[in-house]
Amino acid sequence: MKRRSLIRLAGPLAAAVALPRYAFAQGAYKSEYKMSTVVPPAFAWGKGGEIFANLVRERTGGRINIKQYPGASLVQGDQTRELTAARQGVIDVLCGAPINWSGTARELAVFTLPFLMPDHKAWDAVMNNSALMNEYFDMVRKAGAEPLAVGETGYRQISNSKRPITRPEDMKGLKVRVVGSPMYGDIMSAMGANPTFMSWADAQPALASGAVDAQENPLEVFLAAKIHTLGQKYVTKWNYSNDILLFAVPNQIWTSWTPADQKIVREAAQDAARQQVQLVRKLFDEDAQRVAALGVEVHVPTPGEMKTWQTETRRPYARWKAQFQPTFVSKIEEVVASTRKA
């Protein structure tokens, strides 16, 4: 498949259109702008943040100095508080997964519905649909931040320490660590698992001690965090959810910059997102083999098994579609359906 350039624009003339939205009240720039990321640059997500910060620093001659704080350290490791902290002025730049902010702005997690975009062909078609992304970016603005670009966090897979997972019944009774998203918890509960909400910082010792049996994350995280050393023996590569990586700036910071600097920052974010997606895709193409090489049993579902998973999650899907933006989700479904016919 020929991959199209994944430049995330708010519209064809993003910078020109977006700038007049606000009344500018520039003041003295901060000596440092704090950016929160959940993971460090050893991960594609954190690397995207690092690239973005470096590009902004270089292109503004140090006028805008973005410093990355990995481990969600600006919110004591609780990534679910990032958007709230940005609104309160604790965080100046966002480079994160909206699923983490669903408790604050639920609709921003719309792309994470189970099996909504089952493969990269569907994901790319949605992200490159300017009408859809314009509508989504307006949601971000209503939540209090100016959206700049969209990268990819990667398809989430499930691992566990107990047994191979090849069908929904295999999930029964497993204690699964999930990020603080009620939807992810609902999905796991629908299959008979026992979801446990905890930060990633808390998840690793919980897996090591056996307090939880399973976790779901992109396999890049599995590899970089060496999750196989935490007793995780089985992986199912089911691609059940793939959140965006949103580069955004809280409105109070955005409006303090000049239009010229806003343009620089937006273009830097788009360039960083483009590079970050390339990193994610390269890792995705290699991850199953690399995980298997560690002695972990990796199961890739057949098309029939995938249909079973989709059927099993239909109820939570419908429930959360109604709670997000049902009309918007229907538009996404139409775009995805068009890729099935192509």
What's the structural blueprint in terms of helices and strands?
Blueprint: H1 14-18, E1 33-36, H2 44-59, E2 66-69, H3 82-87, E3 93-96, H4 120-127, H5 130-142, E4 145-155, E5 157-160, E6 175-178, H6 182-190, E7 194-197, H7 200-209, E8 214-217, H8 219-224, E9 234-236, E10 242-250, H9 251-254, H10 259-292, E11 297-299, H11 303-312, H12 314-323, H13 326-341
Strand content: 15-25%
From N to C, what is the helix and strand string? Answer: HEHEHEHHEEEHEHEHEEHHEHHH
Number of strands: 11
Instruction: Tell me the structural class.
Output: alpha/beta
Tally of separate helices: 13
Order of strands, main sheet, comes to 7-6-8-5-9-11
Largest sheet properties? 6 strands, mixed
Helical content (DSSP H or I, runs of 4+): 40-55%
Report the average pLDDT across residues. Answer: 91
Report low-confidence residues grouped into runs of 5 or more.
1-24
Describe the structure concisely for a colleague.
With 342 residues, the chain is an alpha/beta fold. Helix content is 43%, strand content 16%. β1 (33-36), α2 and β2 (66-69) form a beta-alpha-beta unit.
Structure description:
By secondary structure, the protein is of the alpha/beta class. The protein is 43% helix and 16% strand. It is built from 13 helices and 11 strands. It has helices spanning 14-18, 44-59, 82-87, 120-127, 130-142, 182-190, 200-209, 219-224, 251-254, 259-292, 303-312, 314-323, 326-341; strands spanning 33-36, 66-69, 93-96, 145-155, 157-160, 175-178, 194-197, 214-217, 234-236, 242-250, 297-299. The protein has a 6-stranded mixed β-sheet, with helices on both faces. Strands 2-1-3-10-4 form a 5-stranded mixed β-sheet, sandwiched between helices. α4 (120-127) crosses α13. The longest helix has 34 residues, at 259-292. The two termini are 12 Å apart. 47% of the residues are buried.
